[in-house]
Amino acid sequence: MLNQVIGSDILKDKVALVTGASRGIGQAIAVELARNGAKVVISASSIDNLRETEAEIKGLKREPCLLTQANVSIGDEVNDAVKITLDTFGQVDILVNNAGTTRDGLLAVMPENDWDTVLSTNLKSVFLFTKACSKPMVRQRKGCIINISSVVGLTGNAGQANYAASKAGIIAFTKSAAKELAKRNIRVNAIAPGFIKTRMTQNLAPELQEKVRGQIALGRLGEPKDIADVVVFLASDASKYMTGQVLVVDGGLVL
Predict the structure, then answer these.
(1) What share of the chain is helix, strand, coil (3-state, %, to 5)?
(2) Which one, of 92, 72, 73, lies nearest residue 83 by Cα?
(3) How many other C-beta atoms are found inside a 10 Å radius of the C-beta of residue 180?
(4) DSSP secondary-structure letter at 206?
C-alpha cells in the first residue's frame, strides 16, 4: 500500500503545517509532503533557518511553500503561525508536530532550566499547535495530526530523563487527543523514530554509532526519509481507519 502512496499526488489539495522543519527529520517530512502534492507550511524559530528547506521544496516545482516563524512554546506565536496559514490557504488539513530539542544530563545534576526547555519545546508545543489547528479542523470536519515522539518515550534512557518524559508525554497526548477528536473525523497518530542519521547524531563518536548499529535488527541507522515516508502514509487516506496509534520506526532497535 505504501508504495502506491509515495511519489504520487495523494495529498493534492491538502495543506500541511510542519514544525521544526529547518533540518533533519522535519526537513525531510516537509519535502516529502510537498513531493506528494501538499501545499506545505514550514515553521521554525527563525525564518533564515528555513531557507534550505524552502529551496528543496522549490526544486520540486510542485505546490507553493509558506514560511512561518514561531517560538513553539509561546501560545501567541503559535496562534499567529496558524492564522497566517489559514489567511494564505484557507484551511489546514495536516499538522506534523516535529519540533524538538535535547538537553541531556544525569537526573541528579540536571539544571531545572534544562528540564523546562525540553518539556516546553517538545511537549507544550504539541499541545499549543494541536489546540490551534484542531479548531479549523473541527469546522472542516476533517483533519490529520501526526506527532513525532521517540522510542526513548517507550523505553526511557539514562541521561535523558527530560527528553524521555517529553516523548512519553507526546504518546499519552496523542491517544487522548485521538479520543477527543475522532467524532469530528480528525485522526491523531504518533511516530516513534529510533536512531536516525541527522546532523546532530552524525556528531556522535563513530564507536558509539557502531554500538547502536549493532543493536538494530536491520543493521543500519535510519534516514530522515524513513520517517518522512511514514508521515506521508499517515497523512493520506491509505491510513484513514487509523487513529491513536504509535508507529515505531526504528529498524528493530527495541524489539
Answers:
(1) 50, 15, 30
(2) 92
(3) 12
(4) H
* 187 in Cβ contact with 243 (< 8 Å): yes
What is the per-residue pLDDT across 180-210, written as a single tens digit (0 to 9) for each?
999 999 999 999 999 999 876 776 778 888 8
The Cα 41–Cα 181 span in angstroms is 22
CA count, 13 A, side-chain hemisphere, 109: 5
The length of the chain is 255
Q: Is 81 helix (H, G, I), strand (E, B) or coil?
A: helix
**What per-residue string of b and e applies to 212-250 under the rule 16 or more CB within 10 Å gives b?**
eeeebeeeebbebebbbbbbbbbbbebbeeebbebbbbb
Catalytic residue of the set 89, 115, 129, 163: 163
Q: Which residues of the chain, if any, have pLDDT below 70?
A: 1-7, 200, 203
- Residue ranges with strand state E in 24-116: 39-44, 65-69, 94-97
Cα(220)–Cα(30) distance, rounded to whole angstroms?
Answer: 24
The pTM of this model reads 0.95
Annotation marks residue 163 as catalytic: yes
Position of cell 516545482?
61
Can you list the positions of beta strands (E) in 98-233? 143-148, 186-193
